Structures are given as structure tokens and as C-alpha cells.
Amino acid sequence: QVQLHLSGPGLVKPSETLSLTCTVTGGSMSLYYWTWLRQPPGKGLEWLGYVFYTGGTNYNPSLRGRLTMSIDMSKNQFSLSLNSVTAADTAVYYCARKASAFGIFDPWGQGSLVTVSS
Amino acid sequence: EIVMTQSPATLSVSPGEGATLSCRASESIDNNLAWYQQKPGQAPRLLIYGASTRATGIPVRFSGSGSGTEFTLTISSLQSDDLAVYYCQHYNDWRAFGQGTKVEFK
């Protein structure tokens, strides 16, 4: 079955760029929407946006301008960049798959805590 | 913007008893609703989609119901493996998730 594995640094300095990569195994990336979410410590879930397998993207309006998502089908990977980070961006970041632009998230990657601190 | 409101924030239930979690949408979302289970330190897992369809491998003690603005997740007989935070999610908005209901043993 499809599995997602997230990788990237666990610590980012304020004002710098947070970069994460999600590697997909066990299935094709074609026809799906590949998404990013985050969860600040002790808080709820926030959907950040998605990249379609064709490369098309759509971002949460609350973060538009700071987010960039991309996909590399040859490596079975998709990536997230979030610039100008502050302590408010400290969260567990998740990657997940969607079968449609607005639909369910399934499956999810394991999550990765990213702390923004100097 | 549709707002999802879950209640209660914490639900205390005796082992083996039933648990009923509620999710309310600020306007009708038909049956475009999913439920997820999140155990400590883990990613959320899809339980229910389309308001009432169990995802693959989900035990039958989990059931979902509702449409429009009122939705319910029922755990028929609470087990220790069910202790978690449960989130509802509607399909069609960026602000997709409710704030969660924590299920614990009484």
C-alpha cells in the first residue's frame, strides 16, 4: 500500500525558509493531489495546500505568498517551502494524499516536528 | 467560510461503554464529512468518509451518521485502543477541521 515518509530539518531559524520533502512509496503519484498540513503543539490541524501530480498548486489563503509546493515524479517526491518563518510556524508538519482537490486525506505521513528558534 | 464545531472537547467514558461525538457545520455540507483518529505522537488516521462509510480496516464498532449540518461519530464499545483525539473534517474549505474531541476513560 502507499506510504509517505517525511524528511527535513527539525530546527529552522526565524526569518529563514522551512523546507520539507515527502517521499511516496508503494504506489503511483499520478492522478492524486499531494498535500501538506501542520499541527502546532497541543492544537488542531491546519491544511496548508496541495500540489497536483501535473505540478499545479493551490495554497491556503492565510499563508499564500509564503508557501511553495512542488513535485518531482521521477523521484516520487513532493516538497514544501515556507519562507520568513516565525515561532508561530513551529508545528508538526504532515504530508498526505488526496484523491480530489477537496476531499479526504488518506494516507498520511508520520509527521515531523519543526521548531523555529534561534 | 464554513466553521466546524466539535463537542464535547473531552469525553470521559467507562471501558466497554458507548461514546458519541458530535460535529456541527455552520452551513450545510451535505455528506461531505470525514472523521479521523489521532493517537498521541501519531498522524491522524482516516476512520469514516462520506459521513458514514468506514475506511478500509476500521473496526465495525466505529460508525458515522448525519448529513447537512449535524454529524455523529459513535464508538459502540470503548476499548483502550480507542483513546485518542477525534477530528471531523469537511471536504470543501481550507478551514476544514474541527477542533477535536479527546476521548478518555472515566
Description:
The complex is a heterodimer of chains A (118) and B (106). By secondary structure, chain A is mostly beta strands. Chain A has strands at residues 3-7, 11-12, 18-25, 33-39, 46-52, 57-59, 67-72, 77-82, 91-98, 105-108, 112-116. In chain A, a hairpin with a 6-residue loop joins strand 9 and strand 10. Chain A is globular and about 40 Å long. A six-stranded mixed β-sheet of chain B has the order 2-10-9-4-5-6, with no helix packed on it. Chain B has 106 residues and is mainly β. In chain B, a hairpin with a 2-residue loop joins strand 7 and strand 8. Chain A binds chain B through residues 44-47, 60-62, 94, 96, 100, 102-111, and chain B through 34, 36, 42-46, 49, 55, 87, 89, 91-94, 96-100.
The largest sheet of chain A, given as strand count, sense and whether it forms a barrel, is:
7 strands, mixed
Distance between the termini of chain B: 36 Å
Q: Give the helix tally of chain A.
A: 0
- What low-confidence regions of chain A span 5 or more consecutive residues with pLDDT below 50? none
Query: Oligomer, anyone?
Result: heterodimer
Strand order of the largest sheet of chain B: 2-10-9-4-5-6
**What's the helix count of chain B?**
0
Which two protein chains have the largest interface (Cβ within 8 Å of the partner's Cβ), and how many residues from each?
A-B, 20 and 20 residues
Q: Summarize the main sheet of chain B.
A: 6 strands, mixed
The averaged pLDDT of chain A comes out at: 95
Order of helices and strands of chain B: EEEEEEEEEE
- Bin the strand percentage of chain B: over 45%
- Overall mean pLDDT of chain B stands at 95
β-strand number of chain B: 10
